[in-house]
Design goal:
Layout lengths: L13 E8 L4 H7 L7 H25 L3 E5 L1 H6 L1 H9 L3 E4 L12 H19 L5 E2 L10 H7 L4 E2 L9 E4 L4 E4 L9 H4 L1 E2 L4 E2 L5 H18 L2 E3 L4 H4 L2 H15 L4 E3 L2 H14 L6 E3 L8 H4 L8
Parallel strand pairs: 1-2, 1-10, 1-11, 2-3, 4-5, 5-7, 6-12
Antiparallel strand pairs: 6-7, 8-9
Helix pairs in contact: 2-10, 8-10
């Protein structure tokens, strides 16, 4: 099923990484600008993430001895310093997630660069080291994102969806390990109902979402793949959902040969395998197209000379 299976450490049958995007109310300021104070209920939902969800999740995963990776916008780090300290003291990895949850495809190249640099500086001021991992807000990598990640020395990024196991992205100047996401392992489509943002999905019972996450794990375990969540404390930190996460962790721990890791550890493992010659990842060379593509060039509006 996987043509180029990756050898996981110590003969493990699959890798498991629990990751959470700690967006808090950063998106409120992007979407409502000077009207944030008029969206009190929605802001209370978003603040639930750093104030209630994160502490609960840290306690759960610490008790289970399973590591966590948190992706944190710079603005959230600045405005929730106690939550940041709690995450750092727990030993969790802290990854880059923009500044104000900015969409890179809605930014100029200069603004995207400023966002990347600002996020690095803020996270480094808290952790004492530059973040090695990046996840783009809303998976919205622009045509410039990979260039910036290579330029600023990121080890990996985790925003795209192009494989079932890690691979590498090459821009001709350098490479970044891609640890791909999967919509089936995102909590947003399973749970989110949010009138202010026009999300009107039918929420799953946490026990039903558990079955989905369990099925994804069973396949990863059987075929030597990886299982990685893209979850949010404001969503999955809720009581019943967190309970079923605990059930999922126990189910996974009941299997021999599961490697629980941070994304930094996973990316470092990929690089170590390459250095030893034991395994070579698939290389995805970007950009894929020189725009505009010849097939659509004639359909573009004509500019008057």
């Amino acid at each position: 099923m996987i043509r180029n299976p990756i050898p996981w450490p110590n003969g493990a049958k699959c890798a498991v990484a629990f990751t959470f995007d700690v967006d808090a109310d950063s998106t409120a300021h992007i979407n409502w600008l000077d009207q944030v104070d008029d969206h009190v209920a929605s802001v209370s939902l978003m603040r639930y993430g750093p104030e209630i969800g994160v502490p609960r999740l840290i306690d759960m995963f610490d008790a289970a001895e399973v590591p966590l990776t948190f992706f944190v916008p710079g603005w959230v780090a600045e405005n929730y310093p106690e939550t940041m300290r709690m995450m750092i003291e727990s030993g969790a990895e802290i990854g880059h997630h923009g500044y104000l949850h900015d969409d890179p495809n809605k930014q100029t190249p200069e603004a995207e660069r400023e966002t990347v640099v600002r996020g690095i500086e803020i996270l480094e001021s808290f952790t004492g080291k530059k973040p090695v991992g990046y996840r783009s807000p809303t998976h919205a990598n622009s045509r410039h994102t990979l260039d910036l990640l290579v330029e600023y020395g990121f080890l990996y990024e985790s925003s795209l969806l192009g494989d079932d196991i890690p691979y590498e992205m090459d821009n001709g100047k350098g490479r970044v390990v891609e640890i791909p996401c999967a919509h089936g392992l995102d909590d947003w489509p399973n749970y989110m109902v949010w009138r202010d943002f026009n999300y009107f999905m039918s929420p799953k019972a946490p026990s039903d979402a558990y079955r989905l996450y369990k099925d994804e794990f069973d396949a990863a375990y059987r075929y030597g793949g990886m299982w990685m969540s893209v979850w949010h404390p404001l969503v999955s930190g809720r009581l019943a959902r967190a309970h079923w996460i605990g059930e999922l962790v126990e189910y996974m721990k009941g299997h021999e040969g599961v490697w629980f890791c941070t994304l930094e550890e996973m990316a470092a493992h990929v690089r170590a395998l390459q250095a030893s010659g034991e395994w070579t990842p698939r290389i995805d060379r970007q950009p894929w197209y020189k725009m505009p593509h010849p097939a659509i060039r004639d359909r573009l509006p004509k500019v008057a000379e």
